[in-house]
Amino acid sequence: MNASEDPRRTLAEQWLKQQAAALAALGWSVDPASLTAASSDASFRRYFRIAGQKYSQSTSLILMDAPPDKESIGPFLSIATLLRKAGVNAPTIWLHDTSQG
In whole angstroms, what is the distance from residue 74 CA to residue 20 CA? Predict the structure, then answer.
């Protein structure tokens, strides 16, 4: 399925473009066109990898897509915060949009 047939992917690319300034303020430079499928899990969530740089070091970010009509990302955000506060190695959530999932 290409991006034109996948409205959630198209929304993810648009959201990344809109977040360019916020990501730059965090030291990130990303290429929304590099969005590629990374994996999915047993829920409605999908994951995409985005090529980027953090302070001039090549790296990548993972974008999680959770359609809001299927599941709320609130519990995901809460658990991630609790894990990090407890000192557990959990991914950093740099940005999120609860209304879009």
Answer: 23
